[in-house]
């Protein structure tokens, strides 16, 4: 594949809405007036067994000239032979690097591109369920969740919802089970987003949130440890927060509340169950958890006692600001969310929820070491301004 064959595709795309572009052969030559520039390039693996040459695309008045010179260079031609080309925006993207967010319709076998959280909301609530090797637990969680949601629709005809299952590279039948529920309930109700390889819970939640259609976005674990009916507690707390913001901005308090337009977050909390947990856990797990909570306090500050509960609700406005900025992909993404909320001045509420220990936890001893490592990354990344918090893309 020659450099000229993909130049027009790269340059005419501008910045894709998901921050990702899969380049394909096109006519040679670059269109005039282009404002894209190559910042750098490197050989990498896309996690699916294929190798690709990735280029970061920035903005500049001489972008077309700079890109053309790189594409025609001898080194580029040597490395590019036989490779698939992918280009990425330097803006905070709305997916994960290396994968275009598509959902698959099992009835037609067609790949349909997901919407973006920056599009207008078309549902009242989106439920994002990250799943990794959850074939033994996800059925009961989906059945309980759908039963509640269908009952709520009967009580409130205006209530609309979607469930997004994000399969984080499962090696079991998690995807197959997701397709079974899509066939039963329809693609508008349940959607499956697959990641090629396991990237971590934080990456799965981030991708699901950025592809949601709801005014309210709920993150819940696939193991069903939290009672689904408790989402009404989180919802009530968010509505109270949004009304408070509406009142402080001197809007008409009797007007209809657009719950997705104001930033607000509600964290489900198990802090009220701490004494019971300490009594049932082994001593070394209690010691590790106490040490972890102390580190969280030092990194994110006070305000949220339980950062790790997998039951959290965000308004659409909050999700638009938080998840494009989220960098951690595994255990401590929750702590980073707390830190970002404080920096972006997004109000956070902590709500007690019902929680049960479900067999099959994926947290192992080495997971705590990785958690501490990620806490250090948060401290260093934001403390030394290596990780910048972007806000301009929200207006864009």
Automatic annotation (TrEMBL):
UniProt cross-references to Gene3D superfamilies, sorted A to Z: Spore Coat Polysaccharide Biosynthesis Protein SpsA, Chain A
Location within or outside the cell: Endoplasmic reticulum membrane
GO annotation, cellular component aspect: endoplasmic reticulum membrane
Major localisation: endoplasmic reticulum
Keyword terms: Endoplasmic reticulum, Glycosyltransferase, Membrane, Signal-anchor, Transferase, Transmembrane, Transmembrane helix
Xref: InterPro entries: DPG_synthase, Glyco_trans_2-like, Nucleotide-diphossugar_trans
Full protein name: dolichyl-phosphate beta-glucosyltransferase
Naturally occurring in which organism (per UniProt): Ceratodon purpureus (Fire moss)
């Amino acid at each position: 594949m020659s450099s000229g064959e993909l130049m027009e595709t790269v340059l005419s795309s501008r910045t894709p809405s998901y921050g990702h572009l899969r380049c394909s052969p096109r006519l040679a030559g670059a269109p005039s007036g282009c404002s894209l520039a190559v910042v750098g390039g490197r050989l990498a693996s896309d996690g699916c067994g294929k190798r690709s040459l990735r280029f970061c695309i920035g903005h500049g008045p001489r972008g077309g000239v700079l890109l053309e010179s790189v594409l025609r260079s001898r080194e580029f031609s040597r490395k590019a032979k036989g490779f698939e080309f992918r280009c990425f925006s330097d803006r905070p993207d709305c997916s994960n690097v290396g994968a275009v967010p598509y959902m698959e319709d099992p009835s037609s076998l067609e790949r349909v591109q997901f919407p973006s959280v920056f599009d207008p909301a078309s549902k009242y609530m989106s439920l994002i369920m990250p799943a990794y090797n959850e074939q033994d637990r996800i059925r009961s969680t989906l059945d309980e969740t759908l039963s509640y949601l269908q009952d709520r629709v009967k009580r409130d005809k205006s209530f609309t919802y979607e469930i997004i299952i994000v399969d984080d590279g499962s090696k079991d039948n998690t995807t197959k089970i997701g397709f079974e529920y899509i066939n039963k309930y329809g693609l508008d109700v349940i959607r499956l987003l697959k990641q090629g390889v396991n990237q971590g819970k934080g990456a799965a939640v981030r991708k699901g949130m950025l592809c949601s259609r709801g005014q309210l976005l709920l993150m819940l674990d696939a193991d069903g440890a939290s009672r689904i009916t408790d989402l009404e507690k989180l919802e009530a707390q968010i509505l109270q927060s949004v009304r408070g913001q509406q009142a402080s901005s001197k809007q008409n308090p009797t007007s209809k509340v657009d719950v997705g337009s104001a930033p607000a977050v509600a964290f489900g909390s198990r802090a009220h169950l701490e004494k019971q947990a300490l009594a049932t856990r082994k001593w070394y797990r209690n010691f590790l958890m106490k040490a972890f909570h102390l580190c969280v306090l030092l990194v994110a500050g006070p305000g949220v006692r339980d950062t790790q509960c997998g039951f959290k609700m965000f308004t659409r406005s909050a999700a638009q600001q938080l998840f494009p900025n989220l960098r951690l992909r595994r255990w401590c993404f929750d702590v980073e969310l707390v830190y970002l909320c404080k920096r972006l001045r997004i109000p956070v509420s902590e709500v007690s929820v019902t929680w049960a220990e479900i067999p099959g936890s994926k947290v192992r001893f080495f997971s705590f070491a990785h958690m501490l490592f990620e806490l250090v990354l948060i401290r260093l990344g934001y403390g030394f301004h290596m990780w910048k918090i972007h806000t301009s893309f929200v207006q864009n």
